[in-house]
Amino acid sequence: MLTPQQLRKIREAQTSITDPTLKNRFVLIYRLPEKLQNVIFSEDLDKKNTNIAIKCKLTSWQDQSLYTLVNLTIVGEISINNFTQNIEDKLLIDIDDAKDIAQQITKEIFLPIKNLLLEAHGPAFITELNKLAGIETFVPTTPKNMPPTQPNVPTAPPRIIPPSIRSIPPSPSPNTSNPPFSLPINNQPPANPDNTKPPIRQFAVPKIDGNIVNLKDLE
C-alpha cells in the first residue's frame, strides 16, 4: 500500500508534468519503496554508472544512455528480461560488449539493492537478475520435484543355524502317497499282504462239574 507521502508526490507529478511519458515515469517512481526512490536519486548511482562507462571506454552520450537505461530498469518501465539487448541497441555496440557491461551493472548496481528490487518487482525480476550475473537460481525442493522414496520395509535378520544342527543330515520325508502297509491309515487296521486270515485265538472249554465251573480252565 502506498504511503500518504507517495500519494502526494504522485498527485503533484500528475498535475505539474505535462509530458505523458515523464508523467507516467514519475508515477512509477513514486510507487516504489522509499528506500529504492532514494537510490534512484542518489549520487552514488551516478558515480557507479560513470565508473563503468569509463572502464568500458564509452563516449559521453553512451554514458548518459546507459544511466537512463539503468534507472528505467530499476523503476520497472523497461523489463530486465531484455537488459543486454537494450544495451546493445541503445549504445550501438556489439553483443559481447553489451554482455560485459550488463554483467558489471548487475554486480555493482543491481545486486547491492537486490532486496529492494525484490520488494518492488517480485521474484521473477530477481531470477533474471541472477541470470545476468551468472548466478544459479536456487530452486527449493518440493513434493512435486522430489524423487519418489522407497518405503522403509524392515528386513528379517539372517537365520543362524547352530553347528550341532548343521551336522545332522535331513531326515527323508515320509511318502504319504504310498505309505508302508504296516502303518494304519484313517484308523483302519494294518493291511494283510498275504490275504490270509489272522489267527483265531483258541479258548479252552471249561469243564462243568454239575453247576460249578472250573475257573482255572478259563485262563
Give the mean pLDDT: 76
Order of helices and strands: HHHHHHHHHHEE
Multimeric status of the protein: single chain
What is the tally of beta strands? 2
Q: Please identify the structural class as seen in this structure.
A: mainly alpha
Characterization of this structure:
Helices cover 50% and strands 2% of the residues. By secondary structure, the protein is mostly helical. Among the domains are: 1-31; 33-133, no CATH class. The longest helix is centred in the N-terminal third of the chain and has 16 residues, at 60-75.
Descriptive labels:
219 residues; mainly alpha; 10 helices; 50% helix
Summarize it:
The protein is mainly alpha-helical. It has helices spanning about 5-15, 20-30, 35-40, 45-55, 60-75, 85-90, 95-110, 115-120, 125-135, 165, and strands at about 210, 210-215. Among the domains are: about 1-30; about 35-135, no CATH class.
What layout of secondary structure does this protein have?
Blueprint (H helix, E strand, L loop, with lengths): L3 H13 L3 H12 L2 H7 L2 H13 L4 H16 L7 H9 L3 H16 L3 H8 L1 H11 L29 H4 L41 E2 L2 E2 L6
Helix pairs in contact: 1-2, 4-5, 4-7, 5-6, 6-7, 7-9, 8-9
